[in-house]
Design brief:
globular; 52% helix
Amino acid sequence: MTIDGSHRPEPATNADEREMLDGWLDYHRATLAWKCAGLTDGQLRLTPLKPSELSLLGLVRHMAEVERYWFREIMLGEDLADLYSTHENVDGDFHYTDRDTWAEAEQVWQTEVELARQSAAGRPLDLMSDPASHRRGEAFSLRWVYTHMIEEYARHNGHADLLREHIDGTTGE
């Protein structure tokens, strides 16, 4: 079976840089949501690509953490509590219990996406993070963060394609 991803917002082909970056990031965010659509909690938890621990639920939890980390912790310097991963459990986004649900993970992810949008809104792409906010003392421009986030989603959306096909045979661009 093939599913249609036409509901995703297509990035403009003639936009300025900021609109283009926002457009591509939103496109990839919508792609991950599309890959998870219509599945049960049980299917979203499946890890069919052994020995990998990758699951669609884990990818959504991971991307919530990535949104939070780059836009809020790095770019704004916010000191935030861990969502899922910790120093003791660095892959905590992929380690969940029966109490952890898709509804909760999706809500956290969508909240972090909205907070990321707010964090970036109106800020210049040349804005640099405080080097003290990164573990290696590096500074990043907001432009770099956007580009990295697009890359992060694109890579994990490839994983989501494979996971979805293994779960229920569904394919789509």
